[in-house]
Structures are given as C-alpha cells and as structure tokens.
Automatic annotation (TrEMBL):
Its EC number is 1.14.11.41. Residues 135-318 form the TauD/TfdA-like domain. The lineage of its organism: Bacteria, Bacillati, Actinomycetota, Actinomycetes, Streptosporangiales. It comes from Nonomuraea salmonea. The keyword Oxidoreductase applies. GO terms for molecular function: 2-oxoglutarate, L-arginine oxygenase (succinate-forming) activity. Signal peptide: none annotated. This is Arginine beta-hydroxylase, Fe(II)/alpha-ketoglutarate-dependent. InterPro entries: Alpha-KG_dependent_hydroxylase (IPR053447), AlphaKG_dependent_hydroxylases (IPR050411), Arginine_beta-hydroxylase (IPR023966), Clavaminate_syn-like (IPR014503), TauD-like_sf (IPR042098), TauD/TfdA-like (IPR003819). The gene is vioC. It holds the Pfam family TauD. Its cofactor is Fe(2+). Keywords: Antibiotic biosynthesis, Iron, Metal-binding, Oxidoreductase.
Length: 339
C-alpha cells in the first residue's frame, strides 16, 4: 500500500510564489500554449522547478507502480484567470490562465512530450475541463449531472497518453475526481488470463466525434477514421505487461465483447466490478496538479450540478507520451504535436 508521502507532494507558499513568477514571465514571453519556441524550451526551463518535486515525479514515472500522485500548493490567481468560461470555443487565445497552462506543460515535459488530438477540442494542446450547458448527461469532461464512468484516457487508441495531467484552477463545490488502481491479485486467475487476450471490442469515446468539434476540412480524414473506428471490430486486450502487476486499458462504457464470448463478458465484468469497488475520491483544490499513470489508473468524475455562473469547477488537461516516435507517421513534422 502506498503511503501518503508517495502520493502527495506540496510546494511551500514561498516556492509557489517563485513558480508563479516564473510562469507569468513565460506567459509574457510566448504566444500561447502551442508556441513552438515554448514547447522546445520546456524541459530546459523545467529545471527551474524545485528539485524536490522533480525528484518526486521522477520516482513516480520510473517506479511505474502508482496510478496517480498529486503535486499541490501552487497559487492560482482567481482574479487574473477570471470566471469559468461557458465554452472552450471562441475564447481569446491565449486566455488569462496561460501561466497555469504553462505550469502544466512544464510538469508534462518532465515525464515526456505533451501531445494532443486533431479530433478533440478543435485541436488544442491544453484542454479545458469545465461543465458546458447542454452536455450535462454526456460521458465527457464537460458533462456534469451523470457520473463520468471509470476509464483509461483515450483507451481505444493505440497512441493514447502514457501520462495525463489535470491541473485544478478552481473547484469550490469540491467535486471529486474518481481514481481506481488495479490489484490484479484480487482477480480470478482465469479472468486474468482472458483479460490478457485481445477479446474485447473498444470504440472511441464521444469527445472525438466531429459533432463535438468545429467543422474542419483540414481534419476530415481524422474524423472519418474515428467514425470508422466506431464501426470497427477493434479487439484489444484489457491487461498487458507484467503478469504480476499488469497494465490496464479499460473504458467499459465504450466496450463490448463479441457475441457468445461468455468468458470475456465475465472477465470484463469482474475487472470493472473490482475497479468500482476500489474507487476512491480525489478532491482537487486550486493549485493541485493530478498526475495520472494512464496504464495503471482508471479515472472518472462524480456527478454534480453546474451553476454556469462563472464559479464552476475548472481544470486543465494535458496528455503526455513517453514515445513520440510511435505516432511519427501521423505528425507532419518531427516536432508536430497533434495526432
Ligand atoms: O473532471 C475530472 O475530474 C476528470 C475528467 C476526465 O476524465 C478527463 O478530463 O479526462
Ligand atoms: Fe478522463
């Protein structure tokens, strides 16, 4: 069992202020979160983050044992960032929260390379997670009244993130992110064997659909591919890696088993049930950064009622890959970040 010190690290108020000065300086110097120069500099500038937190994250990534950890204590100037927006589309870019986006990117660069999807949030590198009117019951980061069910981020995709960062800007009603790590020793060994086999159908989640993005001719091919994957017979294994402590790839809401494969159905129900029983709440506070090992943790979000008055919960999200090369065929240049 991990102790609290393995999972939590906090910067002191003095250090938080130094970090904010750093990110505000960077926010003045660069055009936005997608500025090529900024992205090139990230790991260089990240050496200015405190050694204690860099060492903490190095352990998290290298030991590859925990599903999540939190680095807290950063300052978020609630006045500067302004009210929680109503939508991510149509906002000024960069927004007043660029310093907070840069902080996430700096941390991301300690773990790998930040990247994003052409088919999500109109191809932005740093995503917004806040409730949007009309999407209440959707299985999306912008949903609210329905439980966002446990999932691996972009579980359907072979190039899904190795790490996912969620940075909290505000969360006044203490809405919890849900987290569940897998202890495969609690599963029937027969189910584990089945889960290691590619017997599970998985489909893209709805955030990648063209209807949730601005109409874009440039990315027609990518949206067509997502539509194809929705129809496809894409069969994957749920578990992989070390049999004693397997990696996990799961999004039960978007998964099925082929007709008649009762073994697969039972194994999927068993692992889904186990994760649900082991689910814990993590209530992020402003200035907390949640680091998710996307091969070890399923995550989601508790239901809540949004007020749409500018005070709603607001997170920022960044995906990180430890192997940029695997998606090279899809990125026009070596430094392009959109798949
Ligand atoms: O809102 C949350 O806490 C998590 C949402 C989520 O699953 C995501 O943004 O990927
Ligand atoms: Fe998620």
């Amino acid at each position: 069992m991990a102790s609290a010190t393995d999972r939590l690290s906090a910067v002191s108020p003095d250090v938080a202020q130094e970090i904010e000065e750093l990110t505000l300086r960077l926010a003045k110097r660069y055009d936005g979160p997608e500025d090529e120069e900024l992205l090139r500099e990230l790991p260089v500038v990240a050496s200015e983050l405190p050694a204690a937190q860099r060492r903490f994250l190095r352990g998290f990534a290298l030991d590859d044992a925990l599903g999540y950890c939190v680095v807290g204590g950063h300052t978020v100037d609630q006045t500067r960032i302004g009210p929680t927006p109503r939508h991510w589309r149509g906002r000024p870019r960069p927004g007043p929260e660029l310093a907070e986006e840069i902080l996430l990117l700096l941390y991301a660069s300690l773990l790998g390379e930040p990247f994003a999807w052409k088919t999500q949030q109109d191809g932005r590198l740093v995503h917004d997670v806040f409730p949007i009117k009309g999407y209440e019951t959707e299985q999306l980061g912008v949903g609210s009244t329905d439980l966002l069910t446990l999932h691996t981020e972009d579980a359907f995709h072979p190039w899904r993130a190795d790490f996912l960062l969620l940075g909290c800007l505000r969360n006044p009603r203490r809405v919890a992110t849900t987290v569940a790590e897998l202890d495969a020793r609690l599963l029937d060994p027969a189910h584990v064997r089945t889960l290691f086999q590619p017997r599970f159908l998985i489909r893209p989640d709805d955030s990648h659909l063209a209807e949730h993005n601005a109409p874009s001719d440039a990315y027609r091919e990518q949206f067509a591919e997502i539509a194809e994957m929705k129809r496809d017979d894409n069969r994957v294994a749920v578990l992989w890696g070390d049999p004693a402590a397997p990696y996990l790839r799961i999004d039960p809401y978007f998964m099925e088993v082929p007709d008649g494969d009762d073994e697969a159905a039972a194994a999927l129900a068993a692992v889904g049930g186990l994760l649900e029983r082991r689910t814990e709440d993590v209530v992020l506070r402003p200035g907390d950064v949640l680091f998710i090992n996307n091969h070890r943790l399923a995550h989601g979000r508790r239901p809540f009622t949004a007020s749409y008055d500018g005070t709603d919960r607001w997170l920022k999200r960044v995906s990180v890959t430890t192997d940029f090369r695997k998606s090279r065929e899809r990125r026009g240049t070596a430094t392009a970040r959109f798949i």
